[in-house]
Automatic annotation (TrEMBL), chain B:
GO terms for molecular function: flavin adenine dinucleotide binding; oxidoreductase activity, acting on the CH-CH group of donors. Residues 231-368 form the Acyl-CoA dehydrogenase/oxidase C-terminal domain. This is Acyl-CoA dehydrogenase. It comes from Celeribacter indicus. One of its GO terms (cellular component) is plasma membrane.
Length: 311, 371
């Protein structure tokens, strides 16, 4: 039955996310450890393979929460896409099945990376298994203990990252089904991460307009601003509806899953951009400063993109 | 979370779609397809078809003679209906006065009026707006003074859609001028044949005359035509407005129109069509999201204002797209590009009526955001 409400397993997951949000952890390591402890990294993996069998319904809850927390964890790269890729390969590929088991157990931390226009991938310096996607996510180059030496190191969100050229290898052709699932998941979780940031930026702005007084009354008492706040609230609701719908479509293996996923990302893109601009504007001068957190959410929206593009 | 409708609901949708599409007369469909207003005869003929299936008052509970659809079925009914080039049913009897009658009316009033609405035998119009009371409806000045067993009504209503064809009008009137404006309003049902009523058509920017001024000059209305208590009219009218908003998203009709325009486009409008497609998808799933909340026992309340706001904005954007495509077309225009200019003008009304979009934003600010 058509139902946007959370079922019991989804509710439990949501509760653990809410509790984590209160813990105020900020280090990447702490976020990853919590992810492992709670089993968020295996939320999408089927129960037969040892996961929670939540499809994308669970992962969007995680991504939305992490987006709102400005979590440094790259949830799509480090958890969701490796899980989908390894689970998709494992029936026919003993190496992938072994890697999946190690990943579920928390003893292996694979990352998924996509080749850029110069056929290079960016990887965290600590990586021991890189799953590099080429040709728009249709082929996979399996890189165990990738050779990272000699490359330039840059720091991205506090993480040492290197960019290396991909080896000259044809790689493994992925099935269309698996490619589509990776693309769908990449778009839905990017949109969900953005949704989390949008909701926080809106909540901050609403709160600011309630408390900031000018001309002897709160900003929220001015109709011109009230209408803009209402539009921000509708933007969050629209994005939420599409993100959840896309997650449900993917979870149910519906034929419209990819269409909804790209639509969710496109809508989150447009609405998020606009909402971010409005959030800064309604904060006024303080919104321009680094000390005001609203800018962090705006930058978060700009930074996180789907790892794999659509054809 | 689950996006799939139950097999029973899908079967219901298929049955409605099949029955409605086979029953829709081609000449009426051609009127709608070419973006023209349907005539009174076309509307009545189509509503007779709906009434024969007991689908005219589609939203009414079974205890009041309606089909007793669940909220999900009601939604699916609208999807099946909106995909057709069928005239939307006249709302005033069905979604406006009907629910007020069965919720607040006396048994005698229900027996007298409800069957006639269900069976397409009474045409209702709405006497709310006045020259001095638009968005600020509570400031209305039409008065009703008790004289024996009748009210004597004096004043003027305006923007009264299809008053020229109406048998009855439901009307907000002032019965007490001494209390605060909202508290002195009562809800009266007025027979349009009563002496003292004058209907004067208003020509609108699209050249049509679907709206009117209605003058009330010493119109005698029996007390038994008042719904509920004296001074309760405002409360009823507010409840009724929320009834409307799910219907007012117009998402199914927008989908129908956008799909038809997309089929005609040779690439010049592709970017706009794609952007509108995404906006429309978001509206469709926002509507489902709120429906799901209702099914779960929640009351989305004024959150449904978002459907009216976004739905009407999207319908207008599609009418603008239609206009631009029609201007760009060389040679004889296909049906769906005909009358693009007059329909674009006509559809300006969407963001004004039913509580203007500015009023919807005021309500959401107050009730949803608490500011």
């Amino acid at each position: 039955m058509m139902d946007f409400e959370l079922n019991d397993t989804e509710r439990m997951l949501s509760d653990t996310l809410d509790r984590f949000a209160l813990s105020a952890a900020t280090e990447t390591g702490a976020h990853w450890q919590h992810c492992l402890d709670m089993g968020w990294h295996i939320a999408s993996v089927s129960e037969e393979l040892g996961g929670f069998g939540l499809g994308l319904n669970g992962p969007v809850l995680v991504a939305r929460s992490l987006g709102g927390l400005l979590s440094p964890l790259d949830w799509a790269r480090d958890a969701l896409l490796p899980a989908i890729l390894l689970a998709g390969l494992s029936p026919d590929d003993p190496r992938a099945a072994q890697a999946l088991d190690d990943f579920l157990a928390g003893t292996l931390k694979p990352v998924v990376a996509a080749a850029d226009a110069e056929n290079r991938v960016s990887l965290p310096k600590t990586v021991n298994l890189a799953l590099a996607l080429t040709d728009g996510g249709t082929r996979l180059i399996w890189m165990e203990q990738p050779e990272l030496t000699g490359a330039e190191t840059i720091s991205v969100a506090g993480e040492e990252t290197v960019s290396i050229p991909l080896p000259d290898a044809p790689g493994l052709a992925l099935s269309k089904d698996l490619t589509d699932r990776l693309r769908t998941a990449a778009h839905v979780v990017a949109a969900a991460d953005r949704l989390g940031a949008m909701e926080k930026a809106f909540a901050m702005t609403l709160d600011y307009c309630r408390t900031r007084h000018q001309f002897g009354r709160p900003l929220s008492g001015f109709q011109a601003l009230q209408h803009r706040l209402v539009d921000m609230s509708i933007a969050c609701d629209e994005t939420e509806a599409l993100v959840l719908a896309a997650a449900m479509a993917a979870t149910g293996d519906r034929p419209d899953a990819m269409r909804l996923a790209t639509a969710a990302w496109a809508r989150a893109g447009d609405l998020g951009q606009r909402l971010g601009e409005e959030a800064i504007q309604l904060h006024g001068g303080i919104g321009m400063t680094e000390e005001c957190e609203v800018g962090c959410y705006v930058k978060r929206m700009m930074a996180r993109q789907p790892i794999v593009s659509t054809p | 979370m689950n996006l799939d409708f139950s097999p029973e609901d899908r079967a219901f949708f298929a049955r409605v779609k099949d029955r409605l599409s086979s029953a829709l007369p081609e000449d009426i469909a051609a009127t709608i397809r070419t973006n023209q207003p349907p005539s009174k005869e076309e509307m009545l003929r189509w509503q007779d078809v709906l009434a024969a299936e007991n689908w005219l008052a589609a939203g009414w509970p079974a205890e009041h003679g309606g089909p007793g659809l669940t909220p999900t079925q009601r939604y699916l009914f609208e999807q099946a209906y909106g995909a057709l080039y069928a005239p939307p049913p006249v709302q005033f009897g069905i979604t406006m006065v009907g629910p007020i009658l069965y919720t607040y009316g006396s048994d005698e009033q229900k027996q007298r009026f409800l069957p006639r609405i269900r069976e397409n035998r009474t045409w209702w119009c709405q006497g709310y707006s006045e020259p001095g009371a638009g968005s600020d409806l509570a400031s209305l000045r039409t008065t009703a003074v008790l004289d024996g067993d009748s009210y004597v009504v004096n004043g003027q209503k305006t923007w009264t859609t299809w008053a020229q064809w109406a048998d009855w009008m439901f009307c907000l009137v002032k019965t007490d001028l001494t209390v605060k404006p909202q508290a002195g309003i009562s809800f009266l049902l007025i027979d349009m044949k009563t002496p003292g009523i004058t209907v004067r058509p208003i020509r609108t920017i699209d050249g049509d005359t679907e709206i009117n001024e209605v003058f009330l000059d010493n119109v005698r209305v029996p007390v038994e035509n008042r719904i509920g208590g004296e001074g309760q009219g405002w409360t009823y009218a507010k409840v009724l407005l929320e009834h409307e908003r799910f219907i007012m998203s117009g998402a199914a009709r927008s989908r129908r129109d956008l799909t038809a325009l997309q089929a005609l486009d040779q690439g010049r409008f592709a970017a706009r069509i794609e952007a509108l497609d995404t906006e429309l998808l978001a509206l469709e799933y926002l509507e489902l999201r709120l429906l799901s909340a209702m099914n779960a026992g929640g009351n989305p309340g004024p959150r449904t204002s978002a459907l009216k706001i976004r739905g009407t904005e999207i319908t207008q954007a599609i009418s603008k797209l239609r206009l631009d495509m029609a201007r760009d077309w060389s040679g004889e225009k296909p049906e769906v590009l005909q009358n693009a200019e007059s329909s674009w003008l006509n559809l300006r009304k969407l963001t004004i009526w039913g509580g203007s979009n500015e009023i919807q934003r005021n309500v959401m600010a107050k009730v949803v955001l608490g500011i």
